[in-house]
UniProtKB/TrEMBL annotation, chains A, B:
GO molecular function term, any single one: oxidoreductase activity
Gene3D superfamilies given in the database record: FAD/NAD(P)-binding domain, Rhodanese-like domain
Sorted UniProt keywords: FAD, Flavoprotein, Oxidoreductase, Redox-active center
Organism of provenance: Vibrio ziniensis
Pfam families linked to this entry: Pyr_redox_2 (PF07992), Pyr_redox_dim (PF02852), Rhodanese (PF00581)
Lineage: Bacteria, Pseudomonadati, Pseudomonadota, Gammaproteobacteria, Vibrionales
Superkingdom: Bacteria
InterPro entries in the cross-refs: FAD-bd_OxRdtase (IPR050260), FAD/NAD-bd_sf (IPR036188), FAD/NAD-binding_dom (IPR023753), FAD/NAD-linked_Rdtase_dimer_sf (IPR016156), Pyr_nucl-diS_OxRdtase_dimer (IPR004099), Rhodanese-like_dom (IPR001763), Rhodanese-like_dom_sf (IPR036873)
Protein name: FAD-dependent oxidoreductase
PANTHER family per the UniProt record, alphabetical: NAD(P)H SULFUR OXIDOREDUCTASE (COA-DEPENDENT) (PTHR43429:SF1), PYRIDINE NUCLEOTIDE-DISULFIDE OXIDOREDUCTASE DOMAIN-CONTAINING (PTHR43429)
PROSITE patterns named among the record's database cross-references: RHODANESE_3
Rhodanese domain segment(s): 482-565
Family: Belongs to the class-III pyridine nucleotide-disulfide oxidoreductase family.
Length: 565, 565
């Protein structure tokens, strides 16, 4: 009889427990969770705060009782594992209800402790109106603060997934919201120019978005004291009052609630104290079988370092999908199988009001940092046949190896069909497809769902034109630095220029270009742009085939414009 | 200077013309179209009739004038090509406006004539209230018949894409509608049991759906005669009246308009009269370069036979996506490149009221017909995290090689996220992924968009359990033929049985199974089912690990139930 002990009862741990039981009726399975809940929907927490998910109970996917009934798993909530005694293959546990301590032996141990919010050393953060959001008790406290503190204004620090979701939750509750982000963009998985679409959406919804702005200090100004109805820790007291925030630019801000969401850090205390290998990035080391440096101890989820699918290097990817699959795989391997983890692409998506922002693989910042030679294309095209109602622009960026055509990564932003396009790219990348092969993809098409040439086909056409030398391109970030030897040509219709154009551009609509080509100088490089890059390419081909030097702005004016948003 | 002549100005022809011009300013490009329109949105026609697409003009994507201005293409509408004179490399053309004839030479000829509606030899079809729908004039005539004939009841013959879309269009206009389909299912790209979901939806919307029913004869009963405001052919007269239909089962039906949509047939007249090779399936033969048996003549789109991606055999796939990509590729090759077509999977989707029905690759009927050994799995799971509002069930079927894990095909039906799942499968199949590899797919996940274990991951888990012998399954179509040695076990909660269950089943909820297992006989095979197959698998593993013989019904009661719809 194999005895499996699992530390952490959410995504990875819960998946492992269920899988282990399906594989073996005999195994003894014990799952420890120091909090009061197992298998809760942590990705749903902001949506309950914002009111999209009405019932708190819907977040509780399983209970200790349901786990026992269905999977015969001994779930011990409010039991904190204090240490791992590797020589004896035991753990020491504290029952948080009565503070008693005991040991439990294991044949295999699975570490699924997750990652905790990073709390920066900012003076004054320790106050009753400042929260992070990791679990149900955190959520309950935030809701309680909102309800008891008459919150008119909220401040969220950090423009990652949780920060953005909390920003939206506050907005839905009618609370004025400030979002502080130290970097020059939100949603770091995408590049700055793609984040511009998110910035525009965030501002359009009335959020006070402050980029390149850090929180420097916090002063708590209490008004009255209230008895707490706290569901979690007894020491947390809800107190009315407000916070005076001082920002890195010297500004001050008065707010009623503060959410710290600047990132997470792997929970490695147990592992490192037990002498397990910790990786350079600060996560628990695991091999492809999800084994730590101790073969009897496995680890999964947000706490571990895993292999990056694209680079093969170690990476930290705190996402639910990988955690779930790793948990399942760890159970397989603890019970005698040999399943190997295939690496993480970091496929991710975030809803930001009406937009979705998604990505897979490496972004341009990462490729630059790693010194990888890459090329990129931008496409903005309709989510489905534009003549059918409800089509929205998909803004799409693809990064690839200009020599081999290998896909490095993709990013997409828009109001419809964003998840689909990034899923397609995630599969293509994982399958090792090249951008050449993407041209041939045969995706679902009917007017309500797609286009005969899908976004991905179009991006592949553009990439292959570039690889084959059929087009010479210029990117949005080069436009502000043109030389005297270059001439800007706007090939849109005059009516389109009213909504913005590049200074100094000559305007010849593409459909008049053959007749008016002699207005253009042959000794200068013609830098062509249109709205999204498609007509620009038609004009580019005309000019080049007529002996002109030219470049086409990929992604057109739209990419240039939103890069500044 | 290369002279390219294109016959047919819609999807494939128009794509070829535009691509050819982008590659070469010098080429002379002439496009012939015997109808009055080029590059119209033929997939949008039913949606204009039904009112979703308000403006008729939105269907006209390009005009001869716009083609000339942008691409310097000489577009000749209302010019019918009468014959190809291969020895002289000319075509003979009739100008339909003045009936004059002339010849035009070519260096390369592209045939993109499309496919015409099959008109069966049914007595009485030739009447003014009977229509097919292929182009703008057809659409105009249907709209005119609706407007002038006070249509209260419509009959659509054929449950394919156009038939289903016309059915929905009539329903949207408040017209009572009968759909006749000779086969026992609509949407033949999916298998019968998956079509059941569509049947249920169609009936729920009040459509008079008659499967396994053919149209035998038609009698036109005119009432009054009207002057025609016809926009197309002058000989078409709109006349008030009704049609008396006689059906294969002897029933009769009175209707005000009849749409024949039983399928299309490649337009091969020009090609076969010119002695070009016609394939066994009746389409124009092409090689991988889209060349016909005459190297100067290329052909693309609905008129040709192309390579099936899965089987490598010849196939006829009249879909817009392949036509567009083939057109682009033919232009490449006419201008000296060597692009090869990679085969067609037949990826398709159809909106049927609130449902989407989609598929890629081979279906089970085709695999059976070809004698291919296959296995299949069914999954019914939420389109995104079920605790987030708006999740809908995705009903998913996957066909694969049980030995190699090769993906043969996939089908999906549901109200949300259907296009996405079939796109994922289309990419995975094209990339040559196995069902083993599908387990590792890392797809976008946030509660509004997906699940940490997506539909596709789950289907892959089920398939791999089956391949590895972790589960022994039974399929819905074996349930009605159980023997005395088998016992049906329903592991759902008693409350769920109220909405239907299998006769003779013993009910032990999965969460009570460990305690009540001794109620089950060890000498019989336990045939387990639940609602969708998931709890059934948990019960299956319990029973098998305790020494029972068991099978789990894949896809559960839901698959069984809708297979009969």
């Amino acid at each position: 009889m194999t005895k499996i002990v699992i530390i952490g009862g959410v995504a990875g741990g819960a998946s492992a427990a269920a899988r282990a039981r399906r594989l073996s009726e005999d195994a003894q399975i014990i799952m420890f969770e120091r909090g009061p809940f197992v298998s809760f929907a942590n990705c749903g927490l902001p949506y309950h705060i914002g009111g999209d998910i009405k019932e708190r109970g819907n977040l509780l996917l399983q209970t200790p009782e349901s786990f026992l009934a269905r999977f015969n798993v001994d779930v011990r909530v409010m039991n904190e594992v204090l240490r791992i005694n590797r020589e004896e293959k035991t753990i020491t546990v504290r029952n948080l209800l009565d503070q008693s301590e005991y040991t439990e032996s294991y044949d295999f141990l699975l570490l699924s402790p997750g990652a905790g919010p990073v709390v920066p050393p900012i003076p004054g953060l320790d106050n009753p109106l400042t929260h992070s959001l990791r679990n149900i008790p955190d959520m309950d406290k935030i809701i309680q603060t909102i309800n008891t503190n008459q919150v008119d204004h909220a401040t969220v620090v950090g423009g990652g997934f949780i920060g953005l979701e909390m920003m939206e939750a506050f907005h839905q509750l009618g609370i004025k919201t400030t979002l502080l982000e130290m970097a020059d963009q939100v949603m770091t998985p995408v590049d700055r120019e793609m984040a511009g679409f998110a910035h525009a959406e965030i501002k359009a919804k009335g959020i006070d978005l402050r980029l390149s702005t850090a929180l420097k200090s916090v002063e708590f100004k209490p008004t009255t004291s209230l008895a707490s109805m706290d569901s979690g820790q007894a020491e947390h007291q809800h107190v009315n009052g407000e916070l005076e925030l001082t920002l890195s630019n010297g500004d001050t801000l008065t707010t009623d609630i503060l959410i710290m969401a600047i990132g997470v850090r792997p929970e490695t205390k147990l592992a490192s104290e037990a002498g397990l290998q910790i990786g350079e990035l600060g996560g628990i080391y695991t091999n492809d079988y999800m084994q730590t440096s101790d073969p009897s101890i496995y680890a999964v989820g947000d706490a571990i370092e895993e292999k990056d699918f694209v680079t093969g290097k170690q990476t930290l990817v705190p996402l639910a999908g990988p955690a779930n699959r790793q948990g399942r795989m760890a159970a397989d391997n603890m019970l005698g199988r040999k399943e190997t983890y295939q690496g993480t692409q970091g496929t991710a998506i975030c809803k930001i009001f009406d937009l979705a922002v998604a990505s897979t693989g490496k972004n341009e910042k990462q490729l630059k940092r790693e010194g990888v030679e890459y090329e990129k294309v931008y496409v903005h095209t309709a989510s489905h046949a534009s003549y059918y109602p409800g089509a929205e622009v998909v803004s799409f960026k693809m990064l690839f190896d200009p020599k081999s055509g290998k896909i490095f990564g993709a990013q997409a932003v828009g109001k419809d069909g964003i998840d689909k396009r990034i899923d397609v790219m995630a599969v293509a990348q994982r399958a090792g497809m090249t951008v050449e092969q993407l041209q041939h993809l045969e995706l679902t098409y009917a007017p309500p769902f797609g286009s005969a040439k899908d976004v991905i086909n179009q991006a592949a056409f553009v990439a292959n034109n570039l690889i084959k030398g059929d087009s010479t391109v210029i990117h949005f970030d080069e436009i502000d630095n043109l030389t005297e030897d270059q001439l800007l040509l706007d090939v849109r219709n005059p009516g389109e220029l009213k909504n913005g154009h590049l200074p100094g551009a000559v305007n010849i609509p593409v459909d008049q270009l053959r007749q008016r080509m002699n207005e253009l100088p042959k000794d200068k490089e013609i830098v062509i742009y249109c709205q999204v890059g498609l007509r620009g390419n038609v004009a580019y081909r005309q000019l080049v085939n007529n002996g002109y030097k030219a470049r086409n702005l990929l992604g057109g004016y739209r990419t240039y414009l939103f890069a500044k948003a």
